[in-house]
Write a structure and sequence with these properties.
702 residues, alpha+beta, 7-stranded mixed beta sheet, 21 helices, 39% helix, globular, ATP binding, Rossmann-like_a/b/a_fold, tRNA(Ile)-lysidine synthetase
């Protein structure tokens, strides 16, 4: 949460002589920040007090903001009766968001009521206590008390830093990642599918300069999405067969400036926290924010927002084209790979920027890696996809690309590269279960997304409506050519970019050390944990696997008279040919060439014929055992033959990412994706269920 202590009413009274009341002027409200309190020595100097603004005498101003907010919520497909959560830090942005959300929920014809305890129905404020400072717990409680005064129920969620406190140079990045993970978990727990975040137009401007200094293209310069789906990496929150729909992030304040945040708090008499770390030049965003504050002319601000808006239109157009191409030219196979039809795609007719984004979406889906594909890799992929017919193979971004069999180079096979250590991830999970039913959210989110799409569909763009499709020219240079920005704004943006690049290079060595550390952690192999019967594992971020043993009589050669001691528990018996017992686990790994050879050998294994069995003079019990063994062998041969037939339809490159189960001795037990199992009593389930859907889920940049 924001660093700062909101003073209680009593504390405010004792320090009122130190408190500055803000009178916000229209043009430059952002310069009128609260003064630091001179508190007693026992109070931490890192704490900032909150600002207390007098209530405005003109209610028209706050009414206009509320109407604008309601329109944005409708654009997102949201209605007051929908259950939503709000990310609350205690700063002016999130407090203004709480004020506007409370009004949206309780005002108008579709207003919702309050529960018996006085809280507004269907809204939850989530306060994340990062636990990085001793006073953070106290501050979180005080922020929660201020939010509950608005009628918003609150929950304080604490972060668990399992790997220790993040390093100072990367504190903001790791704290942000942890914060959104906490948001996701709390929303899932309360079955809330929409999260409001208080990002605003000034945040977009900061991100624009930051990404410009990192050489981002037009898609990155579009900034944060108005709405976007975020998918949980914690599959234990979902039951087998349920769908990971994630949550919808909505940023309804992107069209409003920081100045408006202060005004909303002022008009409603709401206190807020000022974070002292926002003044630290250690962090890139703070440096950029301060620099932008020195360039606060109306012309500069409006033209920067004009460039961002143009980038967002281009991003919306590119996303629209990519979605159409995916629907037309891509086939997803449940065995975990994709096929791109080059003839339908017709890459010669697709612009570089759209084609690069299209290929990146396919590779990110197949590999389930959320990292962007940039630089030389992106250029090589673009060249590869434009070479028709496809004749060579290519490995990039955790994927293996090659011509699809029998396609004569008109189709490209995209499968997961098992040579990448990150792609062999095995996560043992315990699915969340509510009573007798597994966690499975209603379809409210799907309806919200559909309503939001119906609104954005009214703004279908044509190539003539967007700019910056030519990647050869820089965005700001083209913006100047198109008169979106003037010469003065152009120079100021270049200066901001240059200054941030200089700071970035100074920290390059520290950045390399950080990446090196992360790399070591990501590829370090830990001993494989066995999957126990009835438990579930999530393999390669895509396959949901579980197994158990059914009822089967054991046929153990080592037992006396050739018959196992049943022990009165026939319902728990299993065939010794499974090579596994109820008290042992199975290892999950990728399929190898030796598994294919093993199946081929099994399929040709001769079974005992009746004439051979009749020549053997044995007792009746031994005959029964022999018959059972013969029956099992026949079933095993039949299973191997059927599996081979299925495997023939799967390209060789794609077979390597199929999951297989083996026992502790390495004996092949099952290849569940193709139906092979070593014993009829072995019950294995394998469902292809990637975390992030094809295309990355819904997003809108309107």
């Amino acid at each position: 949460m924001a660093r700062g202590l909101i003073l209680t009413t009593q504390a405010r009274a004792t320090t009122s002589s130190f408190t500055k009341r803000i009178s916000l002027s229209k043009p430059k409200c952002k310069k009128l920040l609260p003064y630091r309190l001179h508190l007693p020595s026992h109070v931490s100097s890192t704490r900032f007090f909150c600002c207390k603004c007098s209530v405005s005498q003109d209610p028209v101003v706050i009414t206009e903001y509320k109407q604008s907010f309601s329109q944005r919520m409708a654009m997102a497909g949201l209605k007051p009766h929908h259950r939503i959560a709000i990310g609350v830090s205690g700063g002016p942005d999130s407090m203004a968001l709480c004020v506007l959300t409370a009004g949206w929920k309780t005002d108008g014809a579709n207003a919702v009521g309050k529960s018996d305890d006085g809280f507004i129905n269907g809204v939850l404020g989530i306060i994340v206590d990062h636990g990085l400072r001793e006073e953070s717990n106290e501050e979180a409680r005080i922020v929660a008390s201020r939010v509950t005064e608005m009628g918003i129920r609150c929950e304080i969620a604490k972060c668990s830093w399992l790997n220790g406190r993040p390093k100072q140079g990367h504190l903001l990045e790791e704290a942000r990642e942890m914060r959104y993970e906490v948001f996701q978990n709390v929303c899932t727990k309360h079955q809330i599918e929409v999260l409001l975040i208080a990002h605003h137009a000034d945040d977009q401007a900061e991100l624009f300069i930051l990404r410009l200094s990192r050489n981002s293209g037009v898609l990155g310069l579009a900034g944060m999405a108005f709405t976007s789906q975020m998918f949980s990496k914690s599959m234990h929150l979902y039951g087998e067969g349920s769908k990971n729909k994630g949550i919808l992030i909505v940023r309804p304040l992107l069209h409003l400036s920081k100045e408006v945040m202060y005004k909303v708090c002022q008009e409603s008499g709401q206190d807020w926290v000022e974070d002292p770390t926002n003044q630290s030049t250690v962090y890139a965003r703070n440096r950029i924010r301060m620099s932008l504050g020195n360039l606060s002319s109306y012309t500069f601000q409006s033209e920067v927002q004009g460039v961002i808006s143009a980038c967002r239109r281009t991003r919306a157009y590119v996303d629209q084209i990519c979605n159409n191409l995916i629907n037309q030219a891509v086939t997803i196979i449940d065995h975990g790979y994709a096929i791109i039809d080059i003839e339908i795609l017709n890459p010669s007719k697709v612009t570089d920027i759209c084609l690069s984004k299209f290929v990146a979406l396919i590779l990110q889906y197949v590999s389930q890696r959320n990292k962007p594909i940039r630089g030389s890799t992106s250029k090589l992929l673009l060249h590869y996809i434009r070479t028709v017919p496809c004749k060579t193979s290519f490995t990039a971004a955790g994927c293996y690309l090659c011509p699809a069999p029998r396609s004569r180079g008109t189709k490209i096979l995209v499968c997961c590269s098992v040579d990448c250590p990150q792609n062999s991830k095995v996560e043992l999970i315990c699915p969340r279960i509510n009573g007798e039913q597994k966690q499975n959210f209603p379809t409210e989110l799907e309806q919200i997304i559909a309503d939001g799409k119906s609104y954005s569909d009214h703004f279908v763009l044509d190539a003539s409506d967007v700019h910056f499709l030519d990647a050869s020219e820089s965005v700001i240079s083209e913006a100047k050519t198109l008169n979106i920005i003037c010469e003065s704004t152009y120079r100021d943006i270049l200066l901001l970019k240059r200054d941030e690049i200089k700071h970035f290079k100074l920290k390059a060595e520290d950045k390399v050390d950080y990446k090196s550390k992360n790399k070591v952690e990501s590829i370090s192999a830990s001993p494989c944990e066995l999957l126990q019967p009835g438990k579930v594992c999530y393999f390669m971020n895509r396959f949901w696997i579980t197994w158990k043993l059914g009822n089967c009589i054991s046929v153990d050669e080592g037992t006396e008279n050739g018959v196992a001691d049943l022990g009165g528990k026939s319902q728990e018996l299993h065939s010794c040919t499974c090579g596994i017992g109820h008290d042992k686990g199975a290892e999950v790994r990728c399929m190898s060439e030796s598994d294919w050879l093993y199946l081929a050998k099994l399929s040709k294994c001769p079974s005992l014929d009746n004439s051979q069995q009749q020549k053997v003079n044995v007792s009746s019990k031994m005959e029964q055992i022999s018959e059972k063994r013969s029956l099992h062998l026949e079933n095993l041969v039949l299973s191997a033959q059927k599996a081979l037939e299925v495997l023939k339809s799967i390209p060789v490159a794609a077979r390597r990412s199929l999951p297989v189960l083996v026992n502790h001795q390495g004996l092949l037990l099952s290849i569940p994706s193709i139906g092979f199992k070593h014993c009829p009593c072995l019950m294995v389930s394998c469902e292809f269920k990637p975390i992030v859907p094809l295309g990355g889920g819904h997003s809108s940049f309107i």
